[in-house]
Amino acid sequence: MSRNRENTRDVSGSAAGLMPNSPLVLVMAVATGAAVANLWYAQPLLDTLGHFFGVSNGTAGLIVTLTQLGYAAGLAFLVPLGDLLERRRLIVAITLGTVLSLVLAALAPGVGVFLFASLAIGVTSVVAQVLVPLAAHLAAEEQRGRVVGRVMAGLLLGILLARTASGYVSDAFGWRAVFWAAAGLMLVQATVLWRMLPRSRGESRLAYGPLLLSVLHLFRDEPLLRRRAVYGTLGMASFSALWTALTFLLANPPYNYSDGVIGLFGLLGVAGALCAMVVGRLHDKGGNRAATGVSLALIAVAFAVMGLFRNHLAAIIAGVVLLDLGQQGEHILNQSMIYQIRPEARSRMTTAYMTCFFAGGVIGSALAASLYGVAGWTGVAWLGGGFGGLAFLYWLTGSAEAK
Asked: How far are the Cα atoms of 95, 248, 376 from residue 386, in angstroms, in the given order?
């Protein structure tokens, strides 16, 4: 038994200087992207799912809302365990839970079961947020921003490819095939992660209850965390509002696009994924505040463009690109900053920040789905632009020291 413990320390220690070009960073980036992709498979299918289950756009929009609500719950109750338990075992166990949730979605006979499966998919997909702080923990200090940026680039590519792959698989084989394929991918991923990840036990010695309570203490004690959580919440609300309502806009006149074509719009966010690596370097060089302000301003500008020229495809494309650049830029900067505060509590810092982040997603998707039926795309543009504008105004109130 003592030999086992010694071996665990050796493996973790050898990875403590993880560099951006390490094969393990690539594995973690791919795994993070594949895990978070589960949140977005349903988005380009909302119109199809609504017709299949015979429900309204508002009810179909609940699929996204419940998935994000489940993700927020997983962030609150599962991710903090990364500071307490052995992380490799935790990551693989949660991934297997995702497999079961996706199978349930694939078999769903009605909208009620599908909504429950969506909630479960959200809860278990938080494995992505156990992997990101693990990457930060293993990274060399002077390379942390770049390592986090590369892992997050994988996450963002997962989001983009999820929408595109989902639309095409649905067109070719039906929507159920999307969830069967995702379940198979997660099963393969669980095997790879079990073989590749080093053992790494959390440093906290708190019991589960006090561990969860300590997340609230982090909010109380860390003003930088609170500020970055506000940026993240408002940015994600804008992002989620766009991607929930965009499906309805593109599936109806004047566009009338199929699931496959709607899914292609996810590829426009490649600029956002590339931005993740650039802002990681900016973080390492100390350019956080200015880059955050520019990122938040881009979110507001994106919705202004799409709101004013809703019937022009070029304007929609430009708006999606600008939004992804702004949202992903501020999100990477937020995470890179908060991981500097309490190295021994990175999983709980992730919980504190990402719970707010996905609460913003729930608010944005729920309001967008409801507002689209009342005020159409114009109302959604005002909603998303308003969230971005509020975030930028709040950024103006911060000093350079407050980042």
From this structure: 36, 20, 16
Q: Are the C-beta atoms of 192 and 27 separated by less than 8 Å?
A: yes
Q: What is the pLDDT of residues 96-149, one digit of tens each?
A: 999 999 999 999 999 999 999 999 999 999 998 888 888 877 877 667 777 877
CB-CB contact of 38 with 121 (8 Å): yes
Q: What is the CATH number of domain 2-396?
A: 1.20.1250.20
- Cβ-based neighbours of 312, under 8 Å, separated by 6 or more: none
The domain segmentation of the chain, as residue ranges, is 2-396
Whether residue 155 contacts residue 33, with contact meaning beta carbons closer than 8 Å, is answered with yes
Q: Distance between CA 362 and CA 236 in Å, rounded? A: 9
Q: Is the dihedral of CA 263, 184, 122, 354 positive or negative?
A: negative
Q: How far apart are CA 43 and CA 250, in angstroms?
A: 12
Question: 86 has which bridge partners?
Answer: 201
Q: Please give the structure tokens belonging to residue 376.
A: 């159409």
* Interior angle at CA 253, CA 328 and CA 256, nearest 5: 70
> In angstroms, how far apart are the furthest CA atoms of the chain?
68
Give 323's Cβ-side CA count (13 Å radius): 33
Q: Which long-range contacts (CB under 8 A, 24 or more apart) does 361-364 make?
A: 361/68, 361/71, 361/72, 361/236, 361/237, 361/239, 361/240, 362/65, 362/68, 362/69, 362/72, 362/240, 363/237, 363/240, 364/236, 364/237, 364/238, 364/239, 364/240, 364/241, 364/244
pLDDT tens per residue, range 340-394: 787 777 778 888 898 888 789 889 988 998 898 888 999 999 999 999 999 999 9
Cα angle value 307/51/306 (rounded, 5°): 10
DSSP 8-state secondary structure symbol assigned to residue 299: H
Task: Give residue for tokens 């899914």.
Answer: 263
Q: Give pTM, 2 decimals.
A: 0.72
Q: Count CB neighbours of 53 within 10 A.
A: 18
The pLDDT tens digits for 50-75 are 999 998 877 888 898 899 889 888 98
Two tokens at 42? 């349903």
Q: Six-digit token pair at 133?
A: 């702080």
Q: Which two tokens stand for residue 380?
A: 């959604």
Total number of residues shown for the chain: 403
Residue 297 φ/ψ, nearest 5 degrees: -65, -35
Is residue 158 a contact partner of residue 36, using CB atoms and an 8 Å limit? yes
Which stretches of 144-287 are DSSP H helices?
144-173, 175-196, 208-221, 223-251, 259-264, 270-284
The separation between the first and the last C-alpha atoms of the chain, rounded to the nearest angstrom, is 46
Q: Are 241 and 364 in contact (CB under 8 A)?
A: yes
